[in-house]
Specification:
The chain is mainly α. It contains ten helices and no strands. 71% of the residues lie in helices and 0% in strands.
Length: 251
């Protein structure tokens, strides 16, 4: 089986708690799992949309909360943890060494807790505002946002590439080829969104929001820490998802 196809199975192992098996994966598999991140996100969004549809009769806040809770459980709060750790480190340190030191601390601080609570509240609020368009929000938000860290890895260095304690070290060997494939997924997903009734201008704004998040956050962490880390990539996904949802809910 080609390594890129084995990477599809491994991508679920990395991003979710779904027991797909397949261990041990060949070492080279991990550097290609990122090409499947947008597809894994799309499947996650579809499952959340199915839950939302299955809860007809309940209030919109209840339907959204259950669907969001499902996403957190299935992923183990993987990206949310990255967001909390990133904000703790960036908010509590003044030099690159201390940023990286705080990122390694598994405890959550005040900055991270506030960021996590506010991000989840904002996500639920926007999805409730979307009403009948919430399934589109789930699918596009989960999928397009997972392309952003892959693209960013093709642009920025990974600061812990040689750190044996880094959980994302092997995945971070992803580079420009994987970033190009992620861009292709963005095109496919936008095409699917267009066929579902999303206006081209809205899709363009979704991509624009990802560009803004990638540039602003990327420049900031480059200056503060010297590049990307696994936690920063999780934060990129969360911020990118919020940006997409805000575009979709805009009046």
């Amino acid at each position: 089986m080609p390594v890129w196809l084995k990477a599809f199975r491994a991508s679920f192992t990395f991003l979710t708690r779904i027991p797909v098996g397949g261990f041990p994966y060949p070492p080279k598999t991990w550097q290609w799992i990122s090409i499947w991140f947008p597809l894994v996100g799309a499947l996650m969004g579809c499952l959340q949309a199915l839950i939302w549809w299955g809860l007809q009769g309940y209030s919109d806040p209840t339907r959204v909360l259950v669907a969001v809770l499902f996403g957190v459980v299935i992923t183990g709060g993987f990206h949310e943890d990255g967001l909390a750790d990133s904000i703790d480190a960036l908010g509590g340190a003044y030099d690159p060494d201390n940023v990286l030191r705080i990122l390694k601390d598994s405890r959550i601080g005040a900055f991270g807790a506030l960021a996590l609570i506010l991000a989840l509240m904002l996500k639920v609020s926007i999805l409730v505002d979307l009403g009948a368009m919430a399934p589109v929000g789930f699918i596009l938000g989960q999928s397009l946002s997972r392309a952003l860290p892959v693209i960013q890895l093709g642009i920025q260095p990974y600061v812990r590439r040689e750190d044996p304690a880094s959980k994302s070290r092997d995945v971070a060997r992803s580079g420009r080829p994987q970033a190009v494939i992620a861009l292709m997924w963005v095109a496919v997903l936008c095409g699917a969104g267009f066929s579902s009734g999303v206006a081209p201008v809205t899709l363009a704004q979704c991509i624009g929001s990802l560009v803004v998040v990638g540039v602003v956050f990327g420049v900031y962490v480059q200056r503060r820490a010297g590049g990307l880390t696994g936690d920063f990539m999780g934060a990129l996904q969360q911020l990118g998802e919020l940006g997409i949802l805000m575009v979709l809910a805009a009046p």
